[in-house]
Design goal:
This protein is α/β, with parallel strands linked by helices. Helices cover 27% and strands 26% of the residues. The two termini are 35 Å apart. Bound molecules: pimeloyl-AMP and magnesium ion (MG). The site of magnesium ion has 4 residues, from loops.
Length: 278
C-alpha cells in the first residue's frame, strides 16, 4: 500500500513585467504519506487490505488524495529467519539518543562519516524508502535517490507472531509500529551485504527510533527526534565493496518470513556497548 498527496510547491514563482499581467506558476509535487507491505496467506487478504486502507486514511501526516494497493501471488518459498533480539536503551534527550546511536553504529563497524551522512539524509526526509550508504566511504549506493529502496515481501508466521506479541507485551511495547519495524529490521539485517540500520519514524508523534545490527540486535532508542517533526527515514549501511544490485534485489524481491523469535527484553540500564548479542 502506498498513500500520497499532491501539494503546491512552496516556491511560488511570480512573473511580473507589469502588475496587470501577473502569472503564477504553481508546481504540484507529490509527497509520501504512508506505506506498508507484508506477506500473508490468501485467506488474510481481505482483513489486511481493510487494515491498510484504514491506516492510509488516518495517518497523522495528513489525508492522502491517492492510495495505491498492489497484491501479488508469490510463488517462491520464503526464506525462514529468526527475529532480532529486542532491547531498549535509557535515553532522555535528543543529544543522549544521538550519542547512543553513534556509539552503537561505530561499535558495529560503521565510519563516523557514514553515520553523519545517514543522519543528514534522515533529517532531510522525504524518501519513500531507505537510502543505502557504504559503511566506510559513506557513498550513496541506491540508483533511485528520490525514492530510496523499499523493503518488501516480508512477514511473520502466525505462531511466531503470537510469541512475539507475548514477549513485547511484557514490556508494554506490543504495538503494530514496533512489530512492523522489528520484522523489517530482521529482514534487512539478514541480508549478507548489510551491517546495520538506523531508523527514525516520520510520524510527528513517534519519537523512538532504533539501531539494528548483526552485532547488537534491535536496539530501541527513545527521544531520537523532537516531537512534532514530520521528517524521518531509514539508512542501511552496506559493507564497503559489496554487490549493490544483489543487495537491492534481496531487500525488494526475496520473500522472507520470520519463523522463530529471539528474546525481547525491556529497558537495559547496563552499558549496552559492552553487551553485544553476538
Ligand atoms: N522499506 C524501506 N524504507 C522504508 C520502508 C520500507 N518498507 N517503510 C518505511 N521506510 C522509510 C521511509 O523513508 C519512511 O519515511 C521512514 O522509513 C520511516 O517510516 O521499536 O514507524 O513507517 O518503537 O514512519 C520505529 C519503531 C518505527 C521503534 C519506525 O517508521 C520502536 C516507523 P515509518
Ligand atoms: Mg510513518
Amino acid at each position: 500500500m502506498r498513500a500520497s498527496k499532491e501539494v503546491k510547491s512552496e516556491k511560488l514563482r511570480v512573473k511580473s513585467e507589469n502588475l496587470k499581467h501577473k502569472t503564477q506558476n504553481l508546481k504540484l509535487t507529490e509527497i509520501h504519506i504512508s506505506g506498508a507491505e507484508g506477506l500473508y496467506p490468501s485467506s488474510e487478504i481481505q482483513r489486511v487490505v481493510r487494515k491498510y486502507i484504514e491506516r492510509a486514511i488516518s495517518h497523522p501526516k495528513g489525508r492522502p488524495d491517492k492510495i495505491i494497493l498492489s497484491i501479488e501471488d508469490i510463488k517462491e518459498k520464503p526464506k525462514e529467519i529468526q527475529s532480532l533480539p529486542v532491547r531498549t536503551v535509557h535515553s532522555q534527550t535528543l543529544a543522549e539518543a544521538k550519542d547512543i546511536a553513534m556509539k552503537l553504529l561505530k561499535a558495529s563497524g560503521i565510519s563516523e562519516k557514514a553515520i553523519h551522512a545517514a543522519l543528514r539524509l534522515i533529517k532531510k526526509g522525504g524518501l519513500r524508502g531507505a537510502s543505502l550508504i557504504s559503511a566506510e566511504k559513506a557513498e550513496r549506493l541506491e540508483p533511485e535517490k528520490q525514492r530510496g529502496v523499499r523493503v518488501s515481501r516480508l512477514g511473520i508466521d502466525a505462531s511466531a507472531f503470537r510469541f512475539l506479541s507475548l514477549g513485547l507485551s511484557k514490556h508494554g511495547i506490543n504495538t503494530d509500529t514496533v512489530k512492523e519495524a522489528l520484522i523489517l529490521a530482521s529482514k534487512v539485517i539478514s541480508s549478507k551485504e548489510i551491517i546495520a540500520e538506523l531508523c527514525i519514524s516520520d510520524d510527528p508523534n513517534y519519537t523512538t527510533g532504533y539501531v539494528a545490527s548483526k552485532k547488537f540486535g534491535y536496539i530501541r532508542i527513545p527521544h531520537i527526534k523532537l516531537k512534532g517533526s514530520k521528517t524521518g527515514g531509514r539508512a542501511f549501511f552496506v559493507k564497503e565493496g559489496a554487490p549493490v544490485s544483489k543487495c537491492i534485489s534481496y531487500l525488494e524481491k526475496k520473500p522472507v518470513m520470520i519463523k522463530k523469535v529471539s528474546p525481547c527484553r525491556g529497558i537495559v540500564s547496563d552499558e549496552i556497548i559492552n553487551s553485544p548479542y553476538k
